[in-house]
Design goal:
261 residues; alpha/beta; TIM Barrel; seven-stranded parallel β-sheet; 11 strands; binds NADP nicotinamide-adenine-dinucleotide phosphate
């Protein structure tokens, strides 16, 4: 579908990012085989931007889907697909970032990701496995060292753009004070609407709904509808209380989210 391809934003790196991306975080996770097939369908119907993360467990099936799409002739080169992945909190240590990205690239069977994000402004002890952690495993986040390592990934050409996710204003300001390269994106889990001029990650593994979600460029909300939507209070669906603890770096949601609602 050309419509999606025509709607792109240019990031501060100069790279183009399709405004609609397909999210791949879900629970329970389908089998790798089932997910690969869903993602090949998504490429077939026109998705050219995919959002994954090392913690989602979807990098491998996404890599497989891109290979299959190439074999089937749905795309001619893998660079026709824009891929975002994210650094998990156990790897948010200056010396582990590059290794984590290399593992991601191996999973995705790619030489670079289009966008690599720090998933959370949170550092977990290295030996934590998956989501099996308590607040005691959260240690102070090294914003300067982690971002420096992200910049190295960019300079090595392993990430075409770098950015963050779930950062509040204070943390973003602190990062900018210490950055040589500014983040291209701050991905947040609020349900943003396209009319606000932001790009959006939609998740559906149902083919019909995947199609519907790509068709937002063909129609517009009228002023009355926009007014109604603007009156709906915005709330954060995923607050991430799991990162809070009495003795850790984040004692309250206020601290984690910099007071943002
Ligand atoms: N950076 C972060 O920390 C972060 C946090 C949250 C999310 N994300 C990314 O954003 C993506 C989306 O997350 P989300 O929280 O918005 O999605 P979600 O709540 O996980 O999924 C959206 C739900 O809406 C349904 N749906 C989708 N399109 C629909 C349609 N047209 N009509 C009716 N139902 C529809 C889907 O069901 P079906 O699949 O059955 O259609 C799914 O159950 C994630 O997959 C992930 O990639 C990132």
């Amino acid at each position: 579908m050309e419509a999606n391809k025509l709607h792109e934003v240019i990031l501060n790196s100069g790279e183009k990012m399709p405004m609609i991306g397909l999210g791949t975080a879900t629970s329970p996770l389908p089998s790798n085989e089932a997910l690969t097939s869903i993602l090949v369908d998504a490429i077939d119907i026109g998705y050219r931007h995919f959002d994954t993360a090392s913690i989602y467990g979807t990098e491998e099936p996404l890599g497989e889907a891109v290979s299959k799409a190439l074999e089937l002739g749905l795309i001619k080169k893998s660079d026709e697909v824009f891929i975002t992945s994210k650094l998990w909190c156990t790897d948010a240590h200056h010396d582990l970032v590059l290794k984590a990205l290399k593992t991601t690239l191996k999973n995705l069977r790619l030489e670079y990701v289009d966008l690599y994000l720090i998933h959370w402004p949170v550092r977990l002890k290295e030996d934590v496995e998956g989501f099996n952690f308590t607040g005691e495993d959260v240690i102070p986040f090294d914003i300067k060292g982690t971002w420096k390592a992200m910049e190295d990934c960019y300079r090595l050409g392993l990430a075409k753009s770098i950015g963050v996710s779930n950062f509040g204003i204070k943390k973003l300001s602190l990062l900018l004070e210490n950055a040589t390269i500014s983040p291209a994106v701050n991905q947040i889990a609020l349900r943003w609407i396209h009319e606000q001029g932001t790009s959006v990650i939609v998740k559906s593994f149902n083919k019909e709904r995947m199609k519907q979600n790509l068709e937002i460029f063909d129609w517009k909300l009228n002023q009355e509808e926009l007014d109604k939507i603007n009156k709906i209070p915005q709330c954060r669906l995923y607050k991430a209380e799991m990162f809070l603890s009495e003795n850790g770096p984040y004692k309250s949601l206020e601290e984690l989210w910099d007071g943002d609602p």
